[in-house]
Design brief:
The protein has 101 residues and is mainly alpha-helical. It has one domain (26-96). The protein has 4 helices and 2 strands; from the N terminus they run E-E-H-H-H-H. The chain has helices at 20-23, 27-59, 67-76, 80-93, and strands at residues 4-8, 11-15. It has a two-stranded antiparallel sheet. Strand 1 (4-8) and strand 2 form a beta hairpin.
Length: 101
């Protein structure tokens, strides 16, 4: 990685990438965008876990070819493989004695 120093007025910031697009953004604005991006990633992770928990609550552990999962996937607009994967993720996130099954 290239390390370069970018200047904005009297401010100096260190950048890990020599990117003209990023270098044109005020460092405070850039940091705000990074914080917002991180918050969105965390929100996405929570939502994926919630969806996996919903599948577990509705259907319990099931395989991708389970008829009920196929129907649910079609009705919510996701693939059975994705829902099955999210359910496995959700199941592995709970200690065995606390799993909501």
């Amino acid at each position: 990685m290239l390390e370069s120093t970018i200047r904005h007025g009297s401010k100096e910031a260190s950048s890990m990438h020599d990117s003209p697009a990023i270098n044109d953004i005020d460092p405070a604005v850039w940091e705000g965008m990074v914080r917002q991006g991180k918050a969105l990633v965390q929100k996405q992770q929570r939502l994926r876990l919630e969806l996996g928990n919903l599948v577990l609550e509705a259907l319990g552990p099931c395989s991708e070819d389970d008829e009920d999962l196929l129907l649910f996937a079609r009705q919510v607009g996701m693939t059975p493989a994705t829902l099955s994967s999210l359910a496995r993720l959700a199941a592995s996130s709970w200690p065995p004695e606390a799993q909501p099954l």
